Amino acid sequence: MDPKLAEDLNSLPDLLDVTSKVAGEALAGLAERAAAVPPVAVVPVPLPAEGAGTRGALEAFSQRWEPGFAASAGPRYLGFVTGGATPAALAGDWLTAAYDQNPASGMDSSAQDLERETVGWLAELFGLGPEFSGAFVTGATMSTVTGLAIAREWLGERAGVHVSEEGAAALGPVTVLSGSPHSSVLKALSFLGMGRSALLKVPLLPGREAVDVAKLAEVLETLDGPAVVVANAGTVNTVDFDDLRAIAALKQRYDFWLHVDAAFGGFAALVPEHAALTAGLDQADSVVVDLHKWLNVPYDSAVQFTRRRDLQLRVFANNAAYLGEIGATPDFLHLTPENSRRLRALPAWFSLVAYGRAGHREIVERCVALARDLGARIDGSPRWHLLAPVRLNVVCFTPAAEVTQDRIDALVQAIAEDGTTFLTPTVYDGRPALRAAFSNWRTTPADVDRVFAALERVAGD
C-alpha cells in the first residue's frame, strides 16, 4: 500500500475530525462570505509525483482554491435558483459518501429501498398519486431528458414504432409544443435526436409567461398526429404557471403527452395559499422536480416522475447477465440513463425526516415573503423598475432608465464584485433584466435589507 495511503488509513478518524473542522469553519463564516467571487487566474501546477496525504491536500486546497469559492450555499446568493443544504441534508450527504452505496442495483443492499421510500414521500409531497413512479437523477435537465425520452417512446407507440429499438429516425419528425420552454427542453430534444426544430412555441397570455390554452388548442387542432406538450409549473423569470388542469382537459379531444416542468415551482404544492397553482400536476405524463433548489439538498439531486414506467423500462433497460433479471420491480439502472451513481436519495431522506412537510413548507413560505419584500422595495425605488408581479420566489426587474444588455452585464459584474449578493441576468419581454431567486433555507429579512442596500449602492455608481 502506498505509504501516504496507509498513513491516512491509520489516522482516518483524526482526518475526518480535521475535515469536519474545516467544513464547520466554512459554514460558520458563510453569512459573511462574498456571495460571488469574480474568478482570477490560478497558475496550474504539475500533477504531483508523490502524494502529500490528506492533510497536505487540505492545506493545498485552503491556499490555492478555497479563497475563490463563492457563498453559493449562503443566504444572499440569489442567482439562478439555488438552495443551500439544510443541516440534516448535509449530514445525509456526508453519510452518502461514507457508505458509498450504489442504489442503481438492488442486489447487494437496502439502498434502493430507501430511494423508493424517498421517491414515494416526494410524490406525496407534490400531490402525485400511486400511478406515478420515480427515480433520482442529477438535475432538472436530466429529468427533462428522461421524461422526454419516455415521451419519444410514447410517440413511437402511437406510430407503431419501437424507437428504443429502431432509433429516432424511424419515428420521423415530431411536434413539441410549449409557451415558455426552459432552455433544457431544447437541449433534451437535441440530445434525444428529435431536434431543436421540433419545438414550436405557442402564444402566451398577454403580459404573462403562461401559455394561452385556447391558442394551444388551435395548434393541436391543426396537427395530423400525436404531439408532446411541455407545460410549466413555474417559469424561470417570473414563476408563472400554465393552467395545468385546462391543458390536461385538452387530452379529451387531442392526443398528446403532457410533460410538466415543475423544477422549483412544484414546491408551491406545499403551501395552501399557493397550492392551486399546481392543480392538475397529477394529470401529467411526466414531471420534473429539482431538489437542489427548494428542497435545499446538496448538488446534484433531482427526481423524475412518470405514469408510464413500462415505456421508461423499454427505453433504459440494460440487459446483461451480471446485472441479474429485471423482474417485476425494475432496478433503477433500468429506469434512468445512469448504470451506477451515488445514493442521492439519502440527503433528501434525512431532510424530510428531520423537518417533515411542515418544515419544508415554512422554507417555501418564508422565501415567498422575502421575494415579495424585495419586489416591493424595488417597485418603490426610482432607480429600478419591477417588470412583473412577484408571483412566488423570483423578482424580475431592470434599471428604471433606458437599459442595454451591456448595462445589465456591467451590473451583474458590479454586484458580484460588491460581494453582498449575486444575481443573474435574463431577458423578459424583450428587455434585458436582472432576476433574484429566493430558495435558500438560511435567508432572513435582514438579508433582504442588505441585498436592497447593495442594489441601491450599485445602481448609484
What does this structure look like?
The chain is an alpha/beta fold. Helix content is 41%, strand content 12%. The protein has 15 helices and 11 strands. The strands form 2 sheets. The protein has a 7-stranded mixed beta sheet with strand order 1-7-6-5-4-2-3, sandwiched between helices. Helix 6 crosses helix 12 (309-316) and helix 14 (405-418) crosses helix 15. The chain is globular, with a radius of gyration of 23 Å.
Strand content: 5-15%
CATH architecture of the largest domain: 3-Layer(aba) Sandwich
Average residue pLDDT: 96
- List unreliable stretches of 5+ residues: none
Order of helices and strands: HHHHHEHHEHEHEHEEHEHHEEHEEH
For the termini, the CA-CA separation is 59 Å
Largest sheet, spatial ordering of strands:
1-7-6-5-4-2-3
The first-level CATH class of the largest domain is given as Alpha Beta
The helix fraction, in percent, is: 40-55%
* Biggest β-sheet strands, sense, barrel: 7 strands, mixed
Number of strands: 11
Tally of discrete structural domains: 2
Gyration radius, rounded:
23 Å
